[in-house]
Amino acid sequence: MAVVSRDNRGLRLAVRYLVLVLVAVVFMFPLVFMIVSSLKPTQQLLSDTASLRAFLPVGDISLDNYFAAFARAPVGLFVFNSMLITIITVSASIFLCSLAAFSFVYLNWRGSGLVLSIALATLIIPFETIAIPLLLFVSRLPWIGMNGIEIGWLNTYHVQIIPWIADALTIFLFVQYFKDLPGELVEAARAEGASWWQIYRKVVMPLSGPVLATAAILKSLKMYNEQYLWPLIVVQDEAHRPIMVGLGYFFQLDVAWGEVMAYLSVITVPVLVFYLVLQRAFIASIASTGVKG
Amino acid sequence: MRKLPRIATTLVATIALSPAALAATELSMWYHGAGNEVESKLINQIVSDFNASQSDWTVTIESFPQESYNDSVVAAALAGNLPDIIDVDGPVMPNWAWSGYMQPLPIDEAEIADFLPGTIGRWDGKIYSIGLWDAAVATVTRRSTLEKFDIRVPTLDAPWTAEEFDAALMKIKDSGEFDYPIDLGMAWTGEWYPYAFSPFLQSFGGDIVDRSTYQTAEGVLNGDAALAFGEWWQSLFTRELTPGTSQDPADRETGFIEGRYAIQWNGNWAAVPMLEAFDDVLFLPAPDFGNGPTIGAASWQFGISASSEHPDGAAAFIKFALQDKYMAAFSDGIGLIPPTPQSAAMTEKYNSGGPLEVFYGLSKAQALVRPVTPGYVVAAKVFEKALADIANGADVADTLDAAVDEINADIEKNGGYGH
Fold first, then answer.
1. How many Å lie between the alpha carbon of A44 and the closest alpha carbon of chain B?
2. Are residues A235 and A156 in the same domain?
């Protein structure tokens, strides 16, 4: 009987691994297709889409699409711009939104519940509805730059950063997480005479690794992958364009799909590295808060 | 004390001759060709030549990806950030002029008398824009295919009639040798639909809007001629003569060259790969559905923004660009149709006896600009949806009536668009 039981366990394990491998393969398909396609001439790439060859590095394989993509557009500049905008926005957003959440959860000031509700209500407003008023607003705002006071934020990095720092979803994530932290820790710190800033910095934030990772990943993906409409209308010079607007360089009358895939492969690398570094914390946070990305 | 006037004179002369005083006035220019290496090189060459040719103006160019160019211009117009010179797609120009984004182009009619009609952008009786090229659509097939099925080769003087065209498609379909007899390019959404397919409607005798008043689509988009067009259009899909709206873009790119489509409805910009693939490729005129054969016209053109404080400088640049050598260079570089006979003669493919000369003839003989109205940008989208719906089996009369209602409501909402 013991032998049969061991066999069953082995079989179940094998089936489980088989299913997991199949699921992993399905999820890997888009990535594999993108990378494999980036190595093929456009004509072959299009012909191969009708068969499994689309996922195999077969035929006329080369790095020509990568060279052509870098010749067609300033890919490095676009990646640099997007990474700069993403890093500054995410850092500032996590700091300010966590402070706001800390205030909502621990400071108990009058009207905090109402303000939090109003902040969360902004989640249902599509950005497209406020894009034009926001454009008109930022085009008249002053800024102190290298040449003194300038009017208008267009064609700058800060116009792509500042409007995205305050974010209801990030505040919500921190509020939910802070509510689950043991209140006794904060009470003990207060009893010891710690200031609210000390409690935020030395008690609450050190315990907030998982939510920090979740907020950082969600915000980074939004800033890096989804910034299209806003930079399109506020940035008219190439020097400040991010990657998603740069993708348009490859959509000419005859689309060079091989180059598109090469460009997408290049811009995907930072996202993959970032996710791989933070994935354990991300999964832990999803498990603890029930929030899905 | 005597030195003082001398010093003053020196000072004045120094200031007058300083770089700041001698500096040319800067003109900004936006162009839709970012990512197009050949086009960028050509337009930058024109800018560089212009800047070197005189000392009054210096043009600086900023290029945008074509797919987002219009949105960038509209946003910049709202924010008061337009450049001096813009380029504009021909059918969109009336909307930008009416919206106050552009000012008339000070150019003498005599200077552009030889230009193809589709390259001149007019609105409200004034010229607003001028193009260095045009584009045309043709019926593309192989001589061997027509000979095999004993189909007459149509000419500009004697295009296929509706019956001939239909019979040819059926003959090819019945042979079973091709996936489809004709590929209309249903995979290319957006402006392709009104540009490529409204000429069929116009050849039937209908139109997107009534051009006599531009105040309604009633009677032209849902009249008898339009209904006949709609029924014919739907039959192309029910009889499986052409791929439908679910066509894979990859098939659109490769289907004709790989021999899966016998005929293709395509533009001059796609002609070069076809010439390379076959030695017997034919570029044929549009069929005549009863009201004359028609193809679309008007491509990208240059104009002056309404906010430009230097329209004379902007006009000087645009006139400078209208040189035969530049128009021929654009044609040689990206395969576009040169706008004048002189520039056509200087090109490799559109000169007399050149492989694409037929497109120049098609543009001259069959081209009809899309409705010249600010409302076109809305009507075009309504027309596109109606054609896709009919292709997918929607009732022809109901769909065209609904399209008319939508276009009329938009015209009314915008106070008639200034006509």
1. 10
2. yes
This complex has an ipTM of 0.84
Cβ neighbour number for residue A293 with a 10 Å cutoff? 9
Cα radius of gyration (chain A):
24
d(CA B283, CA B267): 10
| B186 contacts: CB under 8 Å, gap ≥ 6 | B242, B243, B244, B245, B247, B252, B388, B391
Number of H helices and E strands in chain B, helices first, is 18, 13
**Residue A3 belongs to domain spanning:** 1-72
pTM for the model stands at: 0.86
Which residues of chain A neighbour B276 with C-beta distances below 8 Å?
A: none
> Could you give the CA distance from residue B181 to residue A286 in angstroms, rounded to a whole number?
54
Same domain (yes/no): A97, A202: yes
- Residue of A234, A237, A250 with shortest CB distance to B62: A237
- The pLDDT tens digits of the residues spanning A139-190 come to 999 999 888 898 999 999 999 999 999 999 999 999 999 999 998 999 999 9
Tens of pLDDT, residue by residue over B96-119, are 999 999 999 999 999 999 999 999
Q: What class, spelled out in words, does domain B137-295+375-418 have in CATH?
A: alpha beta
Element (H, E) at B210: none
Please say whether the dihedral angle defined by the alpha carbons of residues A87, A91, A92 and A94, taken in this order, is positive or negative.
positive
Cβ–Cβ under 8 Å, residues B218 and B210: yes
Residues of A in contact with B76 (CB under 8 A): 236
Whether residues B34 and A252 touch (CB distance < 8 A) is answered with no
Please say which residue of A72, A91, A126 terminates a domain: A72
Q: Give the nearest chain A residue to B39 (CA atoms).
A: A252
Q: Which of A231, A128, A253 is nearest to B249 (CA)?
A: A253
> What is the β-pairing status of strands B295-297 and B367-369?
parallel
Tell me which chain B residues have a C-beta less than 8 angstroms from the C-beta of A133: none
Q: Are residues A56 and A91 in the same domain?
A: no
Judge whether B188 is closer than 8 Å to chain A, CB to CB: no
The minimum CA-CA distance between A186 and chain B, rounded to whole Å, is 49
Interchain CB contact of A47 with B (< 8 Å): yes
Is A250–B35 a contact, with Cβ atoms under 8 angstroms apart?
A: yes
pLDDT of residue B17: 47
Cα dihedral: A101, A103, A107, A109 (round 10): -110
* pLDDT tens digits, B236-264: 999 999 999 999 888 898 899 999 999 99
Q: Could you tell me if B323 lies within 8 Å of chain A, comparing CB atoms? A: no
On whether both A42 and A156 belong to a single domain, the answer is no
**Residue ranges per structural domain of chain B:** 25-134+298-369, 137-295+375-418
Which residues does chain B have within 8 Å of residue A139's beta carbon, measured at their own beta carbons?
Answer: 79-81
Secondary-structure percent of chain A, ordered helix, strand, coil, rounded to 5: 75, 5, 20
Q: Quickly name the fold that domain B25-134+298-369 has.
A: D-Maltodextrin-Binding Protein; domain 2 (3.40.190)
Nearest to A152 by CA among A144, B310, A112: A144
Write the CATH number for A168: 1.10.3720.10
Residues A138 and A22 occupy one common structural domain: no
Alpha-carbon gap, residue B184 to B193, rounded angstroms: 10
Q: Confirm if A224 and A273 have CB atoms less than 8 A apart.
A: no
A47 with B254: Cβ contact below 8 A = yes
Given A51, A72, A93, the domain boundary residue is: A72
Six-digit token string for B94: 């009336």
Own/partner pairs, B309-313, CB within 8 angstroms, 24+ separation: B309/B84, B310/B25, B310/B27, B310/B57, B310/B84, B311/B84, B311/B103, B311/B106, B312/B106, B313/B25, B313/B27, B313/B56, B313/B57, B313/B84
Q: What domain count does chain A have?
A: 2
Q: Minimal Cα–Cα distance from B335 to chain A, Å? A: 12
Cβ count near B137 (within 10 Å)? 27
